[in-house]
Amino acid sequence: MTNELLSEWLQSSNSTVILTGAGMSTESGVPDFRSTSGWWKNIDPRTVATTEALAQNYSLFHEFYKMRIENLEKVAPHEGHQILADWEKRGIVSLVATQNVDGFHQLAGSQRVEELHGSIRSIRCHRCEKAAPIESFLHKESCVHCGGKLRPNVVLFGENLPQVSWNNAMEAIRAAELVLVIGTSLEVYPVNQLPMMTKGKTAYINLDIAHHAVQFDLTIEGKVKEVLQQLPL
Ligand code: OAD
């Protein structure tokens, strides 16, 4: 029933924005952050994904991001990512805004993607901002231009979101007729504010919807891949 309703909304909406989080990629073998098997169950984010860790505990910072980059070599987008890319081609989706840094939406073929928390697939110098090869980071080398510390182009705790991506996502969501939120705990500010900025309809697909059910017009509890595969579209 809810599946049919969401399909109808997707078909009748003239502008749909998808907002994804780590739950979008768990079925590809990328752990999320806050589930029992998520990254943050073993590691406190304040000790590692911060500018303080980068400055004062670079070994730990480097080890954490090296592990996440190397893990990406073994995994790939799943059919759910491909379904979203197909929806874009068919004019069902206007934009994917994601908190994920894995680049899976683009790899699956989505072209209009805003990476609100950056990308782990590119590296820059924390001091002079110049780009560096990913291998230099993996080998724990310093910046060849200024000797600064290399880091992935992700948003660390305490840093601002990429302004252009944020503005594009916000404008699209404000104007959207439908916002479909997929696989995020909605615990992290400011992205968790985005779904409520629309005047359009809102829907939420997640393994666990209990905390946010009242916020949305429609909720579907389940695994992203299965739910997307089963939508009659
Ligand atoms: P979380 O780990 O906080 O939430 C992931 C959500 O996806 C949870 O509610 C899970 O129940 C759900 N989930 C997991 N697997 C699923 C599946 N197969 N199908 C459906 N739902 C599933 O991840 P995010 O909300 O993305 O930021 O976290 C937001 C930000 O917190 C991340 O971007 C990261 C982190 O700190 C930075 O690193 C800046």
UniProtKB/TrEMBL annotation:
Keyword NAD: yes
UniProt protein name: protein acetyllysine N-acetyltransferase
E.C. designation(s): 2.3.1.286
Domain Deacetylase sirtuin-type: 1-233
Metal-binding keyword on record: yes
Record-linked PANTHER family: NAD-DEPENDENT PROTEIN DEACYLASE (PTHR11085:SF4), NAD-DEPENDENT PROTEIN DEACYLASE SIRTUIN-5, MITOCHONDRIAL-RELATED (PTHR11085)
Binding of Zn(2+), residues: C125, C128, C143, C146
Organism encoding this protein: Lysinibacillus zambalensis
Entry keyword set: Acyltransferase, Metal-binding, NAD, Transferase, Zinc
Residues annotated as the enzyme's active site: H117
Entry GO MF terms: NAD-dependent protein lysine deacetylase activity
InterPro entries: DHS-like_NAD/FAD-binding_dom, NAD-dep_sirtuin_deacylases, Sirtuin, Sirtuin_cat_small_dom_sf, Ssirtuin_cat_dom
